[in-house]
Amino acid sequence: MKTWMKATFTGLAMTCSALTASQAMAADTSTLEQVLNSGKLRVCFDAGYMPFEMKSKDGRFIGFDIDIAKHMARSIGVKYEPVNTAWDGIIPALQTNKCDIIMGGMTITPERNLKVNFSQPYIVIGQSIILSNKLKGKVTSYRDLNDPKYTVASKLGTTGAQATKRYLPKAKLDLFETEVDGAMQVQNGKADAFIYDFPYNSIYTAQHKDKVTHISKPFTYEPLGWAVRQNDPNFLNFLNGYLRQIKGDGTYDRVYSKWFKSTKWLRNVQ
């Protein structure tokens, strides 16, 4: 009996030691350490989301998220590496180590939190409506669009699509691969409205104000965060600390003003 108990306790001790060692190894393989060892920060995003990430006329990636990501990389002495990824595959790309972080205007949702971990919100937005000019004055709220006679467009796999399904269940919903394709449906008369993030809709309407109108008051609350692989507290701690630093030292405000309070950058966008 004593021999059996001794063997059992020895086995348990070895198992605990193995678990402790594996946990230590997991901690040692934080994405942050991988970034420092490789000398580059690989950032996933889906270019085309104004003013967060876009492609310039000369082929460069530019935008609010891009500038913040470049500054983050410089702050830890590594190179910034852009990884432009289709939105419907962006979380799988992170999970399969094709990038280190998603910095691409991603809304923090419970569903996404089951797959990734998020930093503290770095900006808060909401859904607004690009409306056909023929409905100006007739439709003044998202509630008015909840009717089978209206066709509403949005982008596949986004909170805009989710909001449309939730708040406008009676309307016909058409989903598109890109925000440009969705907004163009309204401009071309193939949809009555386009529901998407306020920053994008505001800029798009300013560019096409003779063809569409903007119901600008957001009807949802959506915090955006940086997404990382699960079980990596070291990386999350770094990201939250970095965010506090740039909001405190004026860096965040300078970058925000460049992309949200000025439209000079529009002439450089494709």
UniProtKB/TrEMBL annotation:
Pfam families: SBP_bac_3. GO terms for cellular component: membrane. Residues 40-262 form the Ionotropic glutamate receptor C-terminal domain. Keywords: Signal. Gene3D superfamilies: Periplasmic binding protein-like II. Residues 1-26 form the signal peptide. Residues 40-263 form the Solute-binding protein family 3/N-terminal domain. GO terms for molecular function: ligand-gated monoatomic ion channel activity. The keyword rRNA-binding does not apply. PANTHER family: GLUTAMINE-BINDING PERIPLASMIC PROTEIN (PTHR35936:SF38), MEMBRANE-BOUND LYTIC MUREIN TRANSGLYCOSYLASE F (PTHR35936). Belongs to the bacterial solute-binding protein 3 family. This is Cystine-binding periplasmic protein. It comes from Vibrio palustris.
